Amino acid sequence: MVVHWKLHRDGPMEEDVDPDLSVSIRSEGDRTVVAVSGEIDVYTAPKLREHLIDLVANGQYQLIVDLEAVDFLDSTGLGVLVGGLKRVRSHDGSLHLVCSQDRILKIFRITGLTKVFPIHSNIDEALAAGADS
Amino acid sequence: MSTIEVRFSPLTAHVRTARLVALSVARRARIEEEQLDEVRLAVGETCSRAVGVHISRGVDDPITMRLSDERDHFTIEVINTGTLADDPTAAMDLVEASSRALAEGALDSDSMPAGFGLAVVSGLVEDLFVTSDGGRTTVRMSWPMASALPDLAEPTAS
Questions:
Q1: Among A65, A48, A71, which residue's Cα sits nearest to residue A127?
Q2: Nearest-CA distance B3 → chain A (Å)
Q3: Contact check, Cβ <8 Å, B102/A103
Q4: What is the pLDDT confidence band of residue A3, given thresholds at 50, 70 and 90?
Q5: In a mutagenesis test of the B interface, which of A39, A40, A42, A51 is the best target, namely the one with the most B β-carbons within 10 Å?
Q6: CB proximity B120 to A under 8 Å
Q7: Global confidence as pTM
Q8: Residue B148 and residue A112: Cα distance in Å, rounded?
Q9: What is the mean predicted confidence (pLDDT) over A69-73?
Q10: Rounded distance, CA B69 to CA B47, Å?
């Protein structure tokens, strides 16, 4: 089951609830926080991709993707995050990640993507980081 | 030796099921707890790759995942139709490939380079063999079972 809510920009903007992957989007000042929960794999990654594409199409270029509630992430999910980063960078934007789980961080480490994405251990740290970094 | 074989249609939705089965069987095979995440990711990558190969070639045949424990090792084989000739997996530099994915390619392309998933597996699993034979490709991964490891908790005489 997929439920969509599209609300005002300054409140919770959108929530997409699904047993496999849920995505909740909200504004925090000039930043947009994309909170993801569930498993990001070859089946669910296209949904995250669509959300990131929509945000950039709507002029949201300062993104924080919160992976704290993500239980699984594979290379397909990495591809979607890399694609999101490419899109926001083309508008001089940024894409920060929030992740403290070693099981998720491991794939970023072995692929060298820890040097590409600013990765924060909690959302407050990500919000405090410069939006233009 | 005990063996479990799972065959599934080449649908991306079934990859999660394959991961869950592999995780459950790996637990029963007494794989070390810290290696279970590796098993799950390795199975996810290999099954995603197999599904992708079947879809891209229009092959409806099922993919086979065979899990077995023999003596001191737990082994998972993922078998798909199609040879490996057009799938560059050998010695990929993951860091270089990641950089390339970010720097190159169309803006609307969210895919990592071909073979990236299997290269991730090679970074995770020491005991990995990929073979192509008779129009099929087999990815074979093995992990030591806990009972085969030295018993570090063995009491010492005082």
A1: A65
A2: 26
A3: no
A4: very low
A5: A42
A6: yes
A7: 0.86
A8: 33
A9: 96
A10: 20
Q: Write down the pLDDT at residue B114.
A: 75
Give yes or no for residue B146 having a pLDDT over 50: yes
Q: What does the pLDDT average to over A49-58?
A: 96
- Angle between helix A75-89 and helix A45-57 axes, rounded to 10 deg: 10
Percentage of residues in chain A having pLDDT higher than 70: 87
How many Å separate Cα A122 from the centre of its chain?
13
Please tell me the distance from the alpha carbon of residue A20 to that of residue B11, in angstroms, as a whole number: 15
Closest in A41, A82, A111 to B44, CB measured: A41
List for chain B the helix, strand, coil content (%; round to 5). Answer: 40, 25, 35
What ipTM is given for this predicted complex? 0.84
Helix (H, G, I), strand (E, B) or coil at B18: helix
* B37 interfacial to chain A (CB closer than 8 Å): yes
DSSP A52-112: HHHHHHTT--EEEEEEEEEEEE-HHHHHHHHHHHHHHHTTT-EEEEE---HHHHHHHHHTT
Instruction: Tell me the backbone φ, ψ of residue B118, rounded to 5 degrees.
Output: -70, -30
* CA B144 vs CA B9, B125, B148: distances in Å: 29, 11, 7
A72 compared with B115, residue with greater pLDDT: A72
